[in-house]
Amino acid sequence: MSAPQPTHPTTSRDLLVAFACGGCVAAMVGLSFAAVPLYSWFCRTTGFGGTPQVAKAAPTEISDRKITVRFDSNVAAGLPWRFEPERRTIEVRLGEVVTVYYRVTNQAARVTAGQAGYNVSPATVGAYFEKINCFCFTEQTMQPGETRDMPVVFYVDPKLAKDSDEAGVGLITLSYTFYPARVPDQAAASAEPRGSGRI
User: The whole model's pTM is what?
Assistant: First the structure.
């Protein structure tokens, strides 16, 4: 006569473990979707990785210390634009609000669109580089052959002069890269020649 097989009834502890595992999986999936915006927020808040800060007003003081700001421009593959700053370098005082322009030209015979990413170097000065106005927050749609001058309004926070770790910094590079973006349907339709209806 064979021995009876042991049984394993479901207990409340098993259910608790199952719910905990399910909750962990759901949390990990949620965090994977939130990772990019959270990282972006962290960089904007702390200046991590050379991310400039976003200021709403000019500073109340201007330091006697001067620093050179270099402007860099890049265009990613697949975007037929010419993109360059009006000046490559300027010398500014800490706290001085400055406006510079970048010029972009769509070299294609069609409507194109792009959006700029940016950073500053050395990366440690990102927390002190404050932008008041910038074209990088808006997707740019360009007509065939169009040229546009786009302003950047910024200042370097006077607090930089009080940071002993940054005492040797004499040059800051502000770098932009334009990446291709999807052309809005309305802009693409308005660029089609009249009488060239699709068949």
Answer: 0.67
